Amino acid sequence: MELLLDFVIVGVSIGIVYGLVALGISLIFSGLDIVHFAHGEFYMIGSFLGIAVILFTGAPYFWALIGAMIISGVLGVVVERVFYRRLTRGGGGYTVAGMGMIICGFGMSVALQNVAYLLWGAAPHPYPVGFGMPIFLGNIALPKSYFYILICALVLMTVLHTFLTRTKLGLAVRAVAYNKDTSYLMGVNVPVMISLIFGVACAMAAAAGVLIGPINYVQIEMGYLMLLKAFAAAVVGGFGSLPGALLGGIVVGLFETLCAGYLIASYKDIYAFLLLIVVLMVRPTGLLGILVKVKA
């Protein structure tokens, strides 16, 4: 039972990190009708930015988290306005320009990886923080970083939920995600809201990178696998559903941790995609997805 509790805590902690990245993917998809394939690189860059804030300012871990989120959010807004928005000027909006934006996302992923390589090099970087003595659950020592992940991620998701449901700006974001044309007619500045969606989504990915940093070494190729697992989490939870992204992340994290602990640990990165296949076979819309019927 002690070992099971250890696996559950680790699985939920890692799953919430998946959920944060999946949350950004679902947010961009609901607002722009595209899958942002460079989102894993914002997760990677956010983790590096957390290290930079700690080293250059001497700020504690919490402020490094906030600083990395702000910088990554601003970077996300710049990327959306300078690169992605140009693809919509030919007419048709984001839906028509979707394929071009997907291809641009792949190119942006490679570009951001190379920028990170020029700034920080290819060697893995340890996080310059310490959380003190581990917490003992019986005979098992569990690092405090897992509990910090749980607390910080839940606080961030609560703040995001409050922003989207309790503020006028958040309601405008939800309106744009639901229907851009109607939002235009109601006086909502849709381009600004789309930039805000992009910024918030990239900030959430950066937060996930800073939270996972003390557990794993930070390197420039860490975003690719995280993108795949976060995408699996978003699909398992119900693609485009924000609560589903969180639920899917937790389910994927628990499933892969339990399977790695009780089956074969070397196949840890495969279990998430096995779960994805099973969920799509049983419930193609995901756990919280809604099947919408469209008339021809």
Largest sheet: 2 strands, antiparallel
Share of β-strand residues: under 5%
- The residue fraction in helices comes out at over 70%
Mean pLDDT across the residues is: 84
Helix and strand element order: HHHHHEEHHHHHHH
Number of helical stretches of at least 4 residues: 12
Looking at this protein, list some descriptive labels.
296 residues, mainly alpha, globular, disordered C terminus
Description:
The protein is an all-alpha fold. Helix content is 73%, strand content 2%. It has helices at 2-32, 39-57, 61-84, 93-96, 98-120, 144-166, 168-178, 180-185, 190-212, 222-237, 242-262, 268-282, and strands at residues 135-137, 140-142. A hairpin with a 2-residue loop joins strand 1 and strand 2.
In brief, what are we looking at here?
This protein has 296 residues and is an all-alpha fold. 73% of the residues lie in helices and 2% in strands. It starts with a helix and ends in a 14-residue tail after the last helix.
Give the secondary structure arrangement, pairings included.
Layout: H1 2-32, H2 39-57, H3 61-84, H4 93-96, H5 98-120, E1 135-137, E2 140-142, H6 144-166, H7 168-178, H8 180-185, H9 190-212, H10 222-237, H11 242-262, H12 268-282
Helix pairs in contact: 1-6, 1-7, 1-9, 1-10, 1-11, 2-3, 2-5, 2-9, 2-10, 3-9, 6-7, 6-9, 7-9, 10-11, 10-12, 11-12
